[in-house]
Specification:
This protein is an alpha/beta fold. The chain is built from 10 helices and 7 strands. It has a 7-stranded parallel sheet, with helices on both faces. Helix 2 links the parallel strand 1 and strand 2. The protein starts with a helix and ends in an 8-residue tail after the last strand.
């Protein structure tokens, strides 16, 4: 029994940590939340729908025994984000990792058909949200010698059709992340970027509606599948948040199954 308990304890690399995940109630964000909770981290999850966040809280606490704080917040609202960080510290007393995952955009709309409102949607929900969260969280991340994990996309890296505003927001996040890594390194705060290609609820629906197109897409992925949000994306993010990655900062990690091969 003692040996088992010690083994389980060693397996939890983030035991007692606090991780803030934007968009943590569904999709990739919920997969990330599961990966971090499995490693012992308490969670703050944000999103726009309270019922979805509360349902995620119930599942995560029941499965992993961690504490989860759900907060409704609009990433484009700097005051709302400041309140998220305030509630995080009031509840847990610290913050170890910030994961900027949430993003909204008019995907599939050609650049020439984009309106300013369409472009603003991507920039405010993605680039500005990451900027606001990073600024608000920095003092507490400096205190914990923590890290930031920002989500970008192959849409920006490889110029995917119909993704102009989304790609612009994501490449802006990458540039900002590199600067933050340089500026915050002396304070012990690491900043890295992940570009995922993951299976989500919406992608599953697309697969069911367009099976031929899905199979054609799969043929362009050397590993032959989309990533699992928890096992493939979440575990890499856990690594980046852990002491195992204590010398990793300013990096962009593409999790594309080989579909985005580059030097």
């Amino acid at each position: 029994m003692v040996t088992t308990l010690l083994t389980n304890s060693k397996m939890k690399r983030l035991d007692g940590n606090v991780t803030l995940i934007t968009g943590g109630g569904k999709g990739i964000g919920f997969g990330l939340a599961r990966a971090f909770a499995r490693e012992g981290s308490n969670l703050v999850i944000t999103g726009r729908t309270l019922s979805r966040l509360e349902a995620a809280k119930e599942k995560l606490e029941a499965e992993f025994g961690v504490s989860v704080l759900p907060i409704v917040a609009d990433g484009a609202d700097e005051n709302a984000i400041a309140e998220v960080v305030k509630q995080t510290i009031e509840r847990f007393g610290k913050l170890n990792t910030l994961v900027n995952n949430a993003q909204v955009s008019k995907s599939g709309v050609p650049l020439i058909e984009h309106s300013k409102e369409d472009f603003d949607l991507a920039i405010y929900s993605g680039l500005y949200a990451a900027f606001f969260y990073m600024k608000a969280c920095f003092p507490d991340l400096k205190e914990s010698k923590g890290s930031v994990i920002n989500f970008a996309s192959g849409a920006g890296l490889f110029g995917k059709l119909g993704q102009s505003s989304y790609a612009a927001a994501k490449e802006g996040i990458r540039g900002m992340s590199r600067v933050a890594a340089a500026e915050w390194g002396p304070d012990g705060v690491r900043v890295n970027v992940v570009c995922p290609l993951a299976m989500t609820e919406s992608l599953q629906a697309w697969k069911e509606n367009y099976p031929d197109l899905f199979e054609k897409t799969i043929q362009g992925i050397p590993l032959g599948r989309f990533a699992d949000p928890t096992e493939d994306i979440g575990r890499v993010c856990v690594f980046l948040a852990s002491d195992d990655a204590s010398y990793v900062t300013g990096e962009t990690i593409t999790l594309q199954g080989g579909s985005g091969l580059r030097p």
